[in-house]
Amino acid sequence: MTRTLLLATTAAILATAAQAQDAPVDLGTLVLSGSLSPVAEGRTGASVEIVDGDVVEERDGRVLDTLVRLPGVNATSNGGLGTLGSLQLRGLPARYVATRIDGIDVSDPSGTQIDFNFGNFLGAGVDRIEVLKGSQSALYGSEAIGGVVDITSFRPERLGFSGEVRGEAGSFETYSGSLSLGYLTDRSEVALTYGQVKSEGISARSSDNEKDGFEQSSLSFTVAHDLSGVLTVGGALLYSDSELELDDSRTVSTGESFSDQIGGRVYAQLDTGIVSHELSLSAYEIDRRFPTGFVQNFEGQRRTIAYLGSVALDPASTLNVGLDYTEEETETDSTTGSEENASVFAEALHALTDRIDLSAAVRYDDNSDFGGEATSRLAAAWRPVDDWTLRASLGTGYRAPSLFERFSAYGDPALQPETSRSAEIGVERQFGAAGFVKATAFYTEIEDLIDFDGAATACGSGFGCYNQVPGTTTSRGVELSGEAVLTERVALYGAYTYTDAETEGGRLTRTPRHDLVVGLDAEFTQALSGHVDVRHVADIEASPFAPAGNLVGDYTLVGVGASYGVTPDVELYVRVENLFDEDYETAGGYNQPGRAAYIGARAAF
Predict the structure, then answer these.
(1) How far apart (Å, rounded) are the C-alpha atoms in residues 138 and 424?
(2) Span 126-166, pLDDT tens digits
(3) Which string of DSSP letters, residue by residue, matches 447-482?
(4) Whole-angstrom Cα distance, residue 108 to residue 298?
């Protein structure tokens, strides 16, 4: 959620608690997604990774390509820029990942499963990304079994008028640009970003060489105004319009797809001192069209009204309570479906001592068709000595069957939600300005798995149906990450994830067992800097639907780049992706881009 006022309120509460216990705490970075109110990064028991938006725009063409460098994050893609890109968290597919942009749920209600397409989501106007891992349904409801991706768009950082402009050109005749404008006063904030990209692309399908071009325009807008020192109102708007030349599954050459997305949110925040309230309304619509497809039209809508209250019970304790009501609808050429969901939830945050922080959350969701579902989460952070943090969390989650899984020609209206249990324990050691190391062991299991069953007959298709598949899906593993500042000008970073994901003894497809990232940042002069990173992925199984001779398997990618500060506000940069032109696939039968080079410029004002 957008929690501008709550962020300031909670920061004050935390500071008060620290003073009361005579143990001053540097709040540092605040985590917005790990609880219902912001918490200092070092005081949350949740496992959260934070990415700065500048890293996305200068080092990668898509947000997806940045996120896969994080521990526990992997992705698959059906081709190049603009094609379907699916994010995985800790080995679990995209349908288990909830995604928010400026507080708006942007998961597609019309999809086969409800998830977000990261393949056409670029870095234009992205200010910050938080990746929250583990079952989080107690906070975010359905789809959050694997975790949550929370994205914040550009915000002005200084009083008055400010902004930045970016432009980039490179391989595959790709051109992109964005303009961000902001205005900030003591009581008001306005931000606007417009982005555009056009690319001739690559051939998505490995069986031909016809290029699949992509064009997209996008817009994000946020506003907030303090009316009285007590009441703040604001809102957010996002829009994108894209066109992709798509390799049609029935032809050798080309088809086209079109996608329009629009989302909005308005809110009012009332701060009465110890107690704060937030009331919000949000809506999201997506319209996808495939003129040459088996199914040509997909439309999805979501509308939500929500309340969140926060009260400081004492200097060390905060109680958050809330409720929301959501309506979802989908319509295709031959399918219609809808559902309503009402939720009530609560979270208690308590600083047991100046070194131990606890949180407990519960939620109850009541769906109009399949009834009620209760979820919970417990989390703790313990700092036994300075610079050491131990974290642990237990959570339950659920995923409601999608409208397509229930109401399409292959659906079964009798499907019930999948349920999950997750646990993790981790340790982090900070070395001040010299870096950090972090290790986390995780485990998730899912019951009542929904999958396509060729032998099922409930839908009457004659070709099988979606069905509640017997068995337990488990994903377990270890995440390691760290950074070492070798000199004042050189820093080394890395991440490794081991994942063992299976269903009743059978490996989950497209999930690497080993994922290693190593990188180096160097500052050659005050103006000139560079980076190099290597990602090696190993031990992957292709989907059973992948064609013979597919290239799903081990691969190694190398990226390099450099930037030069012409002035403090003007920067030029260059990057090369897939330096050694690795030939690989993450989804069987779909190409990935080869070596590509890009040059760009950024100017702030």
Answers:
(1) 16
(2) 999 999 999 999 999 999 999 999 999 999 999 999 999 99
(3) ES-EEEETT--TT--SS-EEEE--S-EEEEEEEEEE
(4) 10
Q: What is the pTM (predicted TM-score) of this model?
A: 0.93
| Opening angle at CA 263, ends 262 and 266, nearest 5 | 145
Token output for 35? 């609880």
Does residue 492 contact residue 484 with C-beta atoms inside 8 Å?
Answer: yes
Q: How many domains does the chain have?
A: 1
CA distances (Å), origin 423, targets 48, 146, 333, 391, 394: 14, 11, 42, 11, 5
Neighbouring CB atoms inside 10 A of 439's CB total: 16
Q: What is the pairing mode between strands 147-153 and 97-101?
A: parallel
Judge residue 60's burial from the number of C-beta atoms within 10 Å of its C-beta, 0-12 exposed, 13-18 middle, 19 or more buried.
Answer: buried
* CB 517 within 8 Å of CB 494: yes
Q: Does residue 156 contact residue 162 with C-beta atoms inside 8 Å?
A: yes
Q: What gap in Å lies between CA 233 and CA 254, rounded to an integer?
A: 47
User: Is residue 231 assigned to a domain?
Assistant: no
CA–CA separation, 521 vs 563, rounded Å? 11
Q: Does residue 37 belong to any structural domain of this protein?
A: yes
Q: Cβ atoms within 10 A of the Cβ of 248, count?
A: 18
Q: What is the DSSP string of 53-75?
A: HHHHHHH-SBHHHHHTTSTTEEE
Q: Is the pLDDT of residue 4 over 80?
A: no
Identify whether 567 is part of a domain.
yes
CATH code, 289: 2.40.170.20
What's the whole-number mean pLDDT along residues 392-405?
95
Amino acid at 502: E
DSSP per-residue string spanning 10-50: HHHHHHHHHHHTT------SEESSSSSS-EEGGG--SEEEE
Q: What pLDDT is stored for residue 316 in this prediction?
A: 95
Q: Which domain holds residue 181?
A: 4-161+168-226+267-604
Q: What CA–CA distance (Å, rounded) separates 494 from 518?
A: 4
What confidence score (pLDDT) does residue 59 get? 84
Residue 366 inside a domain? The answer is yes
